[in-house]
Amino acid sequence: xxxxxxxxxxxxxxxxxDYLERRGHEVKLFDKWxxxxxxxxxxxxxxxxxxxxxxxxxxxxxxxVLTPTAWPRNDLKSLLKNRLKNIYEKHNLTKxxxxxxxxxxxxxxxxxxxRKLYRIPQSHFNIVPNGVDLPVANKGENTFTAKYGLSDYxxxxxxxxxxxxxxxxxxxxxxxxxxxxxxxxxxxxxEDYFNKCKNLQSENIHFIGRLQEGEELLTDAYxxxxxxxxxxxxxxxSLVAMExxxxxxxxxxxxxxxxxEVFKNYVNYVDPLDLDSVLNELNNLKSGDDLRxxxxxxxxxxxxxxxxxxxxxxxxx
Length: 317
Prior knowledge:
The protein is 41% helix and 11% strand. The protein is an alpha/beta fold.
């Protein structure tokens, strides 16, 4: 269902395609109705959902790279359930995870969760984080401020869904007296949650809707913000935190998931359910300029595409 409700996963696919093409490679988004996999040198899957076709790729002699985009549960119940499925079901995800030649999670924590649940050998993994574009230079007048008359606000960017905790961001804004700008649209199936958020709307809360990734208006929305709030239940490798950091905007970021591995000590980490601690961190924001320098030195898309290119080269003989 990729591209039916575009989000971070689709941004990753399109950016990697773009930057691999810039490096001289031909990259095609596969169309199962018209394309033949045997016309390609390598297949890269970006989901765990269509695992039943992986064996077909290998039977055809094609190298297979998998970016799982997953944060599997590792509690005892989940582990036991998966072990039983592996014993009694002939076809299941665990058995088919032997087919990818390389699995590319975004962090080592994501890798460890996958290894524990699916018992995948360490040698199958290669960490490939997400990235950002080099931001367009600041041209003076901020286009977002000029259009909406807003600046020095708290910012939420992303799909509106319960696990992203927009309700928490709204409460932080209302309790702190800050404006909150919400950029994004409701994720299918989360309409009731969206209505709860709208019911808490005050004159300080502004719903802008979705802005296209990479467009000047979104970049300037990051630039004009006091800080970005990412109060999700967890994040594997937050794209929006990278985008905000790339223009020097401080980030308040959930401590759950792989965030500390990616952002080191350059952001403020919070428990998204402890709003008192979020409010405290809001008054002690870390340097946006230090964050910008760190992001641009380590996480541009060209750097990430080069990592992936090296993986492909080793598989294509």
